[in-house]
TrEMBL record:
Residues 1-19 form the signal peptide. It comes from the Eukaryota. Its EC number is 2.4.2.42. This is Glucoside xylosyltransferase 1. GO terms for molecular function: UDP-D-xylose:beta-D-glucoside alpha-1,3-D-xylosyltransferase activity. Belongs to the glycosyltransferase 8 family. Glycosyltransferase which elongates the O-linked glucose attached to EGF-like repeats in the extracellular domain of Notch proteins by catalyzing the addition of xylose.
């Protein structure tokens, strides 16, 4: 009898631990609802993760996943910055998803905008979608010019032209804030409701790296970041915000919004901390009261408002290095952009009109070379070679003395593209 009792107790103990194992295993699986397949890759989708439409398309930009992937969030991302360009995107089997690029053009900025778009298409292989916000009198000119581009370039992009639109009763104030119409960018999350993420640039921008390299920065966002910009200055002793600003700003020297990556899905969903209410406000609720509170204290218009927002929400911003937004400030008093010294300039920003006057001839040389380049000509002999000649004439200026940084990436990229074209003929 005692032997049977021992056997019974042993069986009960084994049954108890077996039940614990099964419960533990089920618990570890219980948070996942399904498995999503993207190309050749499979991912578990957690029910607890917040919606972030298009994250798969940003992380693997050439893959378009099924609609139920909107709840998937990939990892924690990289909270730091890197001088090197992001690795090339993984390739999937799906149709290439276009990269979204937004710009706002008013007044005499049409030619400058077209030159910026041209600089992007000269280097980029992947399809792009342009969102052009412009005054009514500029619309037909944009259509005529873009539709006249040769098919080898025209086939790589589509475009939509939008009217300038501001909310409520303050339309004229918004339109005149800092530069004509520039504050339109503040309302992109509200106006472009079907777009998940985009690159916003000022009109005075030139791409010296393929657009897909900039687009890949979106995949570096961690789970809280929803926008990306570069610092306004590298050297605090000559920086503007920390010496003169009469309003809060991001970090030590503020950020420059001339090149701004935006995860519109996250921006629309976020509640932003502020100094006006004890609760967070959505983007559309925040802009007008923020403007009314600080309009007497801001100098740089919408960029100042953006700095105020991220002063109170620093966890929402990814800061990329200065060579993604290289301006005269980085070389006018001597070279102070370490990232450009290490890896060259990726994006050139000709702010303060330096593309159109003689103050910074190195900047103007690149702008003129791209603007005048005939699409059908050889990229090396008709663009790069004459550009190098002009840059060598600018060494009497501080920026001209580091002009090799401007072509360090641009030159090899043009050579590679032209070589590939020659081989395909």
């Amino acid at each position: 009898m005692r032997r049977y009792m021992r056997v019974l107790v042993l069986c009960m103990v084994l049954a108890f631990f077996s039940a614990l194992y099964v419960c533990s295993h089920l618990s570890s699986l219980g948070t996942f609802e399904s498995v999503a397949v993207v190309g050749d890759l499979a991912f578990s989708r957690s029910a607890s993760l917040q919606s972030d439409v298009g994250k798969i398309a940003r992380q693997w930009p050439e893959t378009r996943g099924p609609g139920d992937l909107q709840d998937y969030r990939h990892g924690a991302g990289d909270t730091g910055s890197s001088s090197a360009p992001p690795p090339p995107p993984q390739r999937g089997r799906g149709r290439e998803e276009p990269m979204h690029l937004a710009v706002v053009a008013c007044g005499d900025r049409q030619e400058e905008t077209l030159t910026m778009l041209k600089s992007a298409m000269l280097l980029s292989a992947r399809p792009a979608s342009f969102h052009i916000f412009a005054e009514e009198q500029l619309h037909q000119g944009f259509r005529d010019q873009l539709d006249s581009w040769p098919s080898m370039y025209r086939s790589k992009f589509n475009y939509t032209i939008y009217p300038i639109t501001f909310p409520g009763e303050n339309q004229e104030e918004w339109k005149k804030l800092f530069k004509p119409c520039a504050s339109q960018r503040l309302f992109l999350p509200i106006l472009l409701k079907e777009v998940d993420s985009l690159i916003y640039v000022d009109t005075d921008i030139l791409f010296l790296r393929p657009l897909e390299d900039v687009w890949a920065l979106l995949s570096r966002f961690n789970s809280t970041q929803l926008a990306a910009m570069s610092p306004e200055h590298e050297e605090p002793r000559i920086a503007w915000y920390n010496r003169f600003a009469r309003h809060p700003f991001y970090g030590t020297t503020g950020v420059n919004s001339g090149v701004m990556l935006m995860n519109l899905t996250r921006i629309r969903a976020a509640h932003f901390k502020n100094d006006m209410t004890s609760v967070g406000l959505r983007w559309g609720e925040l802009l007008v009261p923020l403007y009314h509170k600080y309009k007497q204290n801001i100098t740089w218009g919408d960029q100042d408002l953006i700095n105020i927002v991220f002063h109170y929400n620093p966890e929402n911003l990814y800061v990329f290095p200065c060579h993604w937004n290289f301006r005269p400030d980085h070389c006018i008093y001597g070279s102070n952009c370490d990232a450009a010294k290490q890896a060259g300039v990726f994006i050139l920003h000709g702010n303060r009109g330096v593309f159109h006057d003689s103050r910074q001839p190195a900047f103007r040389a690149i702008y003129d070379a791209i603007k005048k380049f005939p699409f059908e000509q050889d990229l090396v002999s008709a663009l790069l070679a004459p550009l190098e000649v002009e840059l060598n004439r600018t060494t009497h200026t501080y920026c001209g003395q580091v002009h090799h940084l401007l072509t360090q990436n641009y030159g090899p990229t043009l050579i590679d593209i032209q070589r590939s074209r020659d081989q395909d003929r």
